[in-house]
Amino acid sequence: MTDKDFQVDYIVVGAGTAGSVVARRLLDRTDATVLVLEAGQADTNPAIRDPLRMHELWHGAEDWDYFSVAQSHACGRRLHMPRGRVLGGSHALNATIYVRGNPADYDSWAARGDSGWSWRAMEPLFRRIERYDRDDSGVKGTAGMLDVLSDYAVDPIQKAIHAAAEQTGVPANPDYNSGVQDGVGRAQFTLRDGLRQTTADAYLKPALSNSRLTVLTGARVHRVLVRRGRAYGVAGSIDGRAFVASARTEVVLTAGAIDSAALLLRSGIGPAQELRAAGIEPIADLPGVGRNLLDHWLVPVIFGAEREIAHTPGLPHAQTQLFWRSESGLATPDVQPLHFSVPLYEPWMSGPANGFSLMAGLIRPHSVGRLTVAGAHGPTLIDPKVLAAPADLRRLVEAVRLCRQIGAAPALRAWNATERYPGPAVRTDSDLRDYIRRTVITYHHVCGTCALGTGPEAVVDPALRVRAVEGLRIADASVMPTITTGNTNAPTIAIAERAADLMAPAR
């Protein structure tokens, strides 16, 4: 017997980047009732709104505060993997950077069995999402749901970093979202009037007065309920009180690449042999659940500065970035350094408070990880296998070298910039590899654990329906079969828009 039962047409698990979009589109396009279940609480923390206070949210109430298992190729460290546990999800914790990705990303998805995932099909979805402040290219959206800021004056230190990158041979690129990514330029942000705007702000909150929508916060979903091969609801708890929710039409998982996969596993949907070993009775043998875990990786290159660095209120610390290819012949950029106008020291580091960080980012990793669960009520075991592929270490070495060259370029001499880390003692390739293993961190872009496709490892079909279970769909970053070239928030929104089209075509 439960304390509370719900019956609706659609259940959406997770009110983050994707869930907010799916719920809103279902309301707009159907007469259905929609129940959104969010494990976190309302997004009332002032640090969420201020893009300069992102770091305050990590390890706090709004963060699931996940850690990987010990990483054998990263000095045995357990890496912090922040994930949003709040209305707005990880979009409430991220750096607000908006990157569509590379057209080749989506064409590779389409090659897995459905032209609906090609760039030609996905590009209009981005225009539907976007409300850009300006569009000189003619390829952007200016009347969509989500504000994107691209026209602003960067801080002086960011202007100097931009110039320094050009001095090292990186071309200027005024708009990486116009089709060509390569080069250095301003980042584009999901901000409105200097405040973070999540998809919960843009899509979900304006619909809260709709009588067909119910949003429950503090609602932890423990398992998907399946009867005779069909998902008919979910079971969970709210503040320790059990509930069951039934869906007449579909259950949609939008809990993110960690929690959507973990929920399937705890529900008995996944690799049957592994589930039995964990004490979970399998109800659908899907070997790909939890496999194909992908992420982007960052390595800090940190400089102290004598000239005072100022920060414009309402703009993030990372205002410029670049896309670059670590070797010739690559089809897309594989490196994306982010430029933070603060020194991002690790706990064991020390240095002046006035400085900047050129975060060497690897965005086309070869290493592939996985996640499992330690029983129906046990923890989620996350193993990204960072740097397991030798190519990843080699390309990060090149990315760090580029960042060191940028920091030493003439444009930054007026700041009296001094490299603190890796520092002058790190000289040889072997030294650099050791430094990378000691400092590599996640870019917070985990994806791929419920990959779409048609092969034996695919978890969802090209229509995002979970294989072997009717009435169950997944619409978040977990369905990415390969990781996109750049930040994954915008592609996740586009996945949710695509899911809505599949479930309820626009009227």
From TrEMBL:
It comes from the Bacteria. Residues 8-296 form the Glucose-methanol-choline oxidoreductase N-terminal domain. Substrate binds at residue 443. Keywords: FAD, Flavoprotein. Transmembrane segments: none annotated. Pfam families: GMC_oxred_C, GMC_oxred_N. Its cofactor is FAD. Signal peptide: none annotated. GO terms for molecular function: flavin adenine dinucleotide binding; oxidoreductase activity, acting on CH-OH group of donors. The keyword Cell inner membrane does not apply. InterPro entries: FAD/NAD-bd_sf (IPR036188), GMC_OxRdtase (IPR012132), GMC_OxRdtase_N (IPR000172), GMC_OxRtase_C (IPR007867). FAD binds at residues 86, 221. Coiled coil: none annotated. Residues 365-496 form the Glucose-methanol-choline oxidoreductase C-terminal domain. Belongs to the GMC oxidoreductase family. This is Choline dehydrogenase.
